[in-house]
Input
Amino acid sequence: MHPDKNNFSVSFCFWTIAVSVAAFVFISGWFTSGFAVAAGADVKQAQQQLKTLGYDPGPADGVMGQKTVNAVRCFQLDRGLPVTGRLDRATADTLGLDQGRSVRMVGHKSGRHALLVGNSAYRNGGGLKNPVNDVSAMAKVLDVLGFEVKKLTDCTQNEMRKAMDEFGLRMKNQEVGLFFYAGHGVQVGGKNYLVPVDCCRMDYPNQVDYNCVDVGRLLANMENAGARTNIVILDACRDNPFRRSWSRGSQDKGLAFMNAPSGSFIAYATSPGRTAADGSGTNGLYTSALLKYIAAPGIKIEDVFKKVRIDVRRQSNGGQTPWESTSLQGDFYFAAVGNSPAVFRWGIPLGMDAVMKNLCIRYAWTDSGWGGMR
Output
């Protein structure tokens, strides 16, 4: 064989090998630096995280299929990251995969518990249209906000008492306990009572204690449980259906003011001694306003209810003014932006996350707040 041909073959082989090695080194380096979660198990974790955030990565099978790639692209676009469809280091970090390749779950239920009661179908008159709708809407929002939710509708006195006692046990040493009630509420002698659906006709105020449920029972259970934060929301100031027959014995209207136990926040649909509207839409006036703002990220609880108060006053032409009593010693956020350990960990510090965007779709977010459910 001609020597030049031999030299050419050797040279060609050398450069082929060199280029191959260089390409391998480059790709390996790119792969190592660009991919934080290349293993199947880690891809599976990423898929689980994406699904938790509201994206659709397909089945959590550890395979980087087209659905997963598309979900990653959407996630990157929402976060302002380079849209590559790859699980690169920046994407993995933003997604919440730490160096140990474990997922910091976003939106998981972590020490947050809620008991929701809505009474509409009163058996002896005074039926209400919206309380059951109110607790259904609140349950959906609170579930997305990381609460373990127990929802009860049209409860008897025994059912309400049992639920409150069980709630107190479940709240033992938890982070947050939230009680929401929509329905009739009455006050007698400065004490507040929630009216169950099986309440019989009461001709005198002194019959209330035997037929209704004392709010003090709930507060005592929550305080004894030792949760860090207790929240009580009472859309319960609809006009007393028995008040007409009490005219000679009691002039109490609405609910009475209650001092909030340490670490508690109590919210009323209207100011003490006043009544609240059931609302002409699918939700009560107060709950409708609360749904607009409760899931807005980065707003402290006090500011959420301040927005609610402004909204309700505007909608009622000043006729209804929501009220709060608080003894909170720290800041509480229903939906926090960031990773503060004192609040719910969304895990994403870059503005409104995908879970909230999912809520935008479901609850029609506008610049003025959350609109009615679609």
